[in-house]
Design brief:
Oligomer: single chain
Largest sheet: 5 strands, mixed, barrel
Distance between the termini: 36 Å
Strand content: over 45%
CATH class: Mainly Beta
Number of strands: 7
Number of domains: 1
Helix content: 10-25%
Number of helices: 2
CATH architecture: Beta Barrel
Length: 144
C-alpha cells in the first residue's frame, strides 16, 4: 500500500529563491530552494491570543525551479502544494545534517503589493513534466 504524502502550506517567502549546487545532479536537473514562514494563530490556556510561526524549506526542481528564480521574491505570499521529503546534507563543518522539506509541484503566489488601484493577481506555476519525481528518486546530497 502506498501511503499518502501530500502537503499544502501557505505563508510568506522569507528568503530569495536560490539555486543549489548539487554534487551529482540527476540528468542535469537544477534545484532551487527558498523558505516559507507560516503563522498559526490560536488562544492559549490563559485565554490570550498567541501565534506560532514555522519556517519550512521548499525545493523546486527543473523548469519549476527556473520559473521560481524569475518570478518569486522575498516577501511574497505563496501557497505551495507538494510532498514531504527527508533531506540529508553535509554542513561546512563536515557534520551530516537532516531536515524535512517540501518538494513542490504546484505554486500559487501574489506580489507583495499591487500598484495603487490595482487588485493583486495570483499566478500559478506547475511542475508539468514531473521533474520533482524523477529528480528525487535517488538520494541527493548538497552542501551550503
Amino acid at each position: 500500500m502506498n501511503h499518502l504524502n501530500s502537503v499544502l502550506l501557505e505563508g510568506i517567502l522569507v528568503s530569495e529563491p536560490r539555486q543549489i549546487s548539487l554534487s551529482d545532479p540527476p540528468d542535469g536537473v537544477r534545484l532551487v530552494k527558498f523558505d516559507i514562514a507560516s503563522n498559526r494563530y490560536y488562544v492559549d490556556r490563559n485565554g490570550e491570543k498567541a501565534q506560532e510561526t514555522v519556517f519550512i524549506p521548499v525545493q523546486c526542481w527543473g523548469s519549476l525551479g527556473d520559473r521560481c528564480l524569475d518570478k518569486l521574491s522575498k516577501g511574497m505570499e505563496c501557497r505551495t502544494v507538494g510532498r514531504l521529503r527527508l533531506c540529508r546534507w553535509v554542513s561546512s563543518d563536515g557534520s551530516t545534517r537532516r531536515s524535512i522539506e517540501i518538494v513542490a509541484n504546484h505554486l500559487e503566489f501574489r506580489a507583495k503589493k499591487a500598484k495603487e488601484g490595482e487588485k493583486p493577481t495570483t499566478e500559478i506555476l506547475e511542475d508539468e513534466n514531473n521533474e520533482s519525481d524523477s529528480a528525487c528518486e535517488v538520494e541527493v546530497f548538497y552542501s551550503f
